[in-house]
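Quick illustration for those who missed Monday's session on complexes.
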Amino acid sequence: MTVDQTYIDIIKNGGVVAFPTETVYGLGADAWNAQAIQKIFEVKGRPSDNPLIVHISDIVQLDEFVDEIPDIARTLTQHFWPGPLTMIFPKKQQVLDIITAGLGTVAIRMPDHPTAIDFISRTGPLAAPSANTSGRPSPTKTTHVRHDFGADFPVIDGDFSRIGLESTVLDITGDTPVILRPGKIGASEIEQAIGQKVILDKAESQSAPKSPGQKYSHYKPKAKVVYGEISDLDKHTLYLTQNNSSGSTNVVCYNGDLKKLSRELFDQFRQADIQGYDRVHIEEIEDFKPSNPALYTALKNRIRKAVV
Ligand code: TXA
Ligand code: MG
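Prediction with magnesium ion bound:
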């Protein structure tokens, strides 16, 4: 699908536009326009110490932001770009502080979505966080973006995000690569590609998380989120179950399909609020970890943040 020129013009004139990606919808602004990027923080109500991901459409654009591309990054771009892997690089001096929140590093990814690629190839690199009000679940449909930012907000129409959870954030600036935010691309896939050990950051337990976004409460609906075994069903609770297909309208059974649960989790959180449920109860997914360890880890990370 070709993106309407109107959206390209909004970016060129220093505005912000929401657009679909394979993970979640992003809220983009010209990565070289600090005033435009400032609008992202205003629209989202995002704390200014939480840096943004630069989205590119072509590997040559990496050179605008990074002086030297480490070998391991070359390998990872070949394996996983375009795709749901964000890498943290030492930044070029001229990269705007508003993107990096003053850090010496910059996060970059190339989305695997034809609309996003068409858009970025015509605007140039975009700084873009997820297109939700800060603290709300990330948007996986255009209606989610409109719900948060208003019916007239410029959002490029797209499909239901295919993955539904945000990209894996990988810090490659140290000796050992560190996953700062787990996503669809997991540690073992990355290890296989680079032939080197990767560690998963325990960001939540640290006083100064390396990925600033990890310290904020996230992904939360207004309804209380509960995780664990289900006994009696309560009509004010929306259940996301693995085995209990009771047929009630408040029970959605996933049968251990972690891909489907990942795709739908944020939509279910938002649905629960629209339908006025008090709670969302997610039945345990431990048994299904072997079927997809990466998505399991990513899901547990998002669920944990929604539960607290
Ligand atoms: O899938 C995604 O990554 C989506 C789509 C739109 O691409 N974007 C997204 O952006 O989730 P956002 O802003 O919601 O999350 C970016 C995460 C935050 O946790 C932020 O702290 C971290 O990346 N981050 C950005 N720059 C960083 C840096 N230089 N060092 C460490 N963490 C960084
Ligand atoms: Mg976000």
